[in-house]
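Both lines are given unchanged directly below:

***
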Amino acid sequence: MKTNRWDNYRKANDKFPEVRKKELQLMLKKVNPQSGEIIMECGTGNGYLTFPIAQKLGKGKLITYDVTPENLDAVRKLNKKFNLPIEIKQQTIFYDFEETDSSMDKIISIASFHHYDNKIKKTGFSGRLEALKEFHRIIKKNGKIIIGDVGKNTISSKYFDSINNPKFCFPEGHPHEFLDKKEIQNLCLQTGFEIESYEVAHVPWVFDSEDQAKEFLHTIHNAKCSPEESLAHAKKYLKFWKENNKYYLDWELFYLIAKKK
């Protein structure tokens, strides 16, 4: 049976929700959601940021966008249990948003911003530029964008470049390029945002065992090699260590906060 990469992405994150806890905790601190705010999320995934944010909004609302219908269906189904203020919307292209006014207090994205551009399609930075233009259009004056993502020349980017191969990430590899601080600053300047803070942080993934690490990596990338090969390959690019009965795989993300001028 054919398995879609994003089916396995959700499966990995749903089965092992604690693995990416450190990157999520720092993102929640940066977003600092307040009751009554209207926040837009770009890249729903399995909802691992969606639900913690929505829980803080009270009479506010979280609008979440994704291009993968199955991701949205899964979040819609889960929210029947929690009944949180989540409005789910599908995009046909990454930077096409339905909103017609400047109503967002914040726009957030974690581990998704690099997907706006594609090496195969040779889009360069154009997708991210268009996305930021749209963010500027629909966010309030002094509203903020908070983006957590892989940065250029970090250990995470070198790892992702190494799995741009269907063996390690099926079916297309990982055909996405990353931004450094200067490139992000230039994109923000072009689109009317002023950077408030930029930080590259170590947010290692945490596992209960090596076997769990093998399964998580193999599943999240929909790999066609063995689980053992998935972990062995990751160890070539990322530090892997044991501490206090937990196993850690080093990981880096940048966290950007920028305000609409």
